[in-house]
Amino acid sequence: MKTATLASIALAMSVSVANAQTIGVSMSDLDKFRTALLNGVVTHGQTVSGLKLVTENAKGDNELQKKQVQKLIVDKVDAIILAVSDGDLGPQMTKMAADAGIPLVYINNVPSNLLDLPENQVVVASNEKESGTLETKQVCTLLKGKGRIVVLMGEPFHAAARARTQDISDVIATPDCKGLEIVERQAAYWSRDYADQQMQEWLAAGVKFDAIIANNDEMALGAIRAMKKAGMPMKDVVVAGVDATDDALAAMVAGDLDVTVLQSAVGQGAAAVEAAVKLVKKEKVPRENNVPFELVTPENISKYLPKSQ
To answer: Nearest Cα to 265, choosing from 132, 121, 108?
Structure first.
């Protein structure tokens, strides 16, 4: 769904009731997954009587996101749902919302000040220890514990990118997978185009590998695109990503993608809205609210196709 359409839906969700609430939603950017995440928030918000959502997109600009959050505070929204690209922005965002007395729900990315959040600030995300671990264990199984790996990482300062990359190293350190070797590891910033470019550089340099482990599906798809342009048979390489986006599931059906891990944008979006509504009512919400990851492979993809992001 296009961003403009999502914003139109969100801004039209005002219901004239005495106890109407307004929740501001600030997205760091709107790539494939984060668009699905916003759609999950908006879709669930439509089911809550009297709820109005106001959405902002920082387009990858941290300073712009801070200004947008400040504006939401000035506009006196009842709560804020915040997807930050950089977890280190957490302390600043927390102080801004706390000083204004506005509940804050961090979604998808865990802030660096997680342990110091006040009672009316919580996190809705998925346990990243599961994502990279599930992904890498499956790659290890497919390679029978031996092979050369290249790793495509998200934004280096993003908590999920750091965690998923560490998960890869942790799995490779286990006895069953110690025959795996990381031969290259580069950031491609969650981007299909950057991953395509990085894979082209590796191929031009003659890098030999048996598998690509990407921190997300967009980068996995970019690597696939580059390899196919170079005439590489996809049956000769294992490709893994995270998110189970619709494009990734289509690539798996086509036989190009071997592994992905469902990070439920719908689940996180719904949980974030529910947490925000409860905080506005001054109800108790756990500091950490985890939405489980699920391994998706060609063997079980049929059960995930109807739930594609």
So the answer is: 108
Instruction: Calculate the CA dihedral of residues 45, 301, 141, 126 and round it to 10 degrees.
Output: 0
pLDDT in tens, 37-69: 999 999 999 999 999 999 999 999 999 999 999
pLDDT in tens, 63-93: 999 999 999 999 999 999 999 988 899 999 9
Is the sign of the CA dihedral 106, 112, 114, 120 positive or negative?
negative
Q: 123 phi and psi, to 5 degrees? A: -125, 135
Number of H helices, E strands in the chain: 10, 12
The model's pLDDT over 250-268, given as tens digits with 9 standing for 90+, comes to 999 999 999 999 989 999 9
Is the distance from CB of 221 to CB of 247 less than 8 angstroms?
A: yes
Burial of residue 194, with CB atoms counted within 10 A of its CB: 0-12 exposed, 13-18 middle, 19 or more buried: middle
Measured distance CA(218)–CA(221) in Å, rounded:
5
Q: Token pair for residue 266?
A: 């719908």
Reference 209, options 217, 248, 201; nearest CA is 201
63: buried, middle or exposed (CB in 10 Å: 19+, 13-18, 0-12)?
A: exposed
Task: Report the alpha-carbon distance of residue 55 to residue 5 in Å, rounded.
Answer: 12
3-state SS track over 27-73: ECCCCHHHHHHHHHHHHHHCCCCCEEEEEEECCCCHHHHHHHHHHHH
CB-CB contact of 84 with 29 (8 Å): no
User: pTM here?
Assistant: 0.73
Structure tokens at 221: 């798809």
* Residues making up the chain, counted from first to last: 309
